[in-house]
Each structure stands twice: as C-alpha cells, then as structure tokens.
Amino acid sequence: MHCSFVKSWAQKAVILINRDHGTDPDAVAEKLRHMPSPSLVFGFVLATLYGAAFHFVSGGDARRLALFLLSAWLGFALGHGFGVLVNFDAMNIGPLHMLTATIGAWLALVVARLLTRQPPRRSSRA
C-alpha cells in the first residue's frame, strides 16, 4: 500500500510539473531519477556532523570549522573508498562502508588538527 501511494504521488508530481513547464512526463521522470542516493546524503550528513562535533570540542573560528568540515568529508569519502577497495564488509549500511568511512573521517580530522595546531608561545622573562 505504501508503494502505491508513493507511485501515485510521483505521478501527480510529474503531471503538475509537466503542466506548469510544458515538458513531457518522460523528461521530468528522467530528471527525478538523477536525485542523489540516500546513502550519499546520509554519508554527507554524517561526515558533516563529525566535522561539526570535532570543531565543537577543539574550538576555533569559522575558518577552522570549514577546514574540519572539508577534512571530514574528504576523510569519509576516502575511508569509504578504502572499504570498497579492500572489500571490508563490517558495519555496512546498504552500500555505505560505515566503519572504514568513519575511521577515515576521524583520521582526517586529527591530521587537520595536528597540522593547524598553533605552536606554543614563549613567554618573555626579563
């Protein structure tokens, strides 16, 4: 019953878009098929949360937040790619290799933190 509801909703959406924009339903259906997969969206959200949590713990300004977000996204993608490459199937959620992706994200965050750490200041004693 749930699938028929979703199918009828999608058909109504295609008809409405077709009526408003003057395109054929097949072209609109083709555009709707190119939406990002749920695994991609979930991975992006999870990596964003990892980067934001790391920034919350380590502190810093908006530039460091951007650095941590980029590091988490890159590390998550590389970790997932590593999991696919070595066919490591522990803790998968659908096609997403969660364990290796999470480890990759956290490793990238730690490396970013270590590379951007401020050197200790010397106190001048006179």
Describe this structure in words.
- With 126 residues, this protein is mainly alpha-helical.
- It folds into 2 domains: 2-33, no CATH class; 38-115, no CATH class.
- It contains 5 helices and 2 strands; from the N terminus they run ααααββα.
- A two-stranded antiparallel sheet has the order 1-2.
- A hairpin with a 2-residue loop joins strand 1 and strand 2.
- The model has no long low-confidence stretch (mean pLDDT 83).
| SSE pattern, N- to C-terminal | HHHHEEH
Q: How would you write the strand order of the largest sheet?
A: 1-2
Using the CA coordinates, give the radius of gyration: 22 Å
Q: Unreliable runs, pLDDT <50, ≥5 residues? A: none
- State the total count of DSSP E strands: 2
The N- to C-terminal Cα distance equals 81 Å
The dominant shape is elongated
Biggest sheet record: 2 strands, antiparallel
Count of domains = 2
Count of runs of 4 or more consecutive helical residues: 5
| Proportion of residues in helical segments | over 70%
What is the typical, i.e. mean, pLDDT? 83
- Structural class determined from secondary elements: mainly alpha
Strand content: under 5%
Sequence-ordered SSE layout with sheet pairings:
Blueprint: H1 2-21, H2 25-33, H3 38-58, H4 62-86, E1 92-93, E2 96-97, H5 98-115
Antiparallel strand pairs: 1-2
Helix pairs in contact: 3-4, 3-5, 4-5
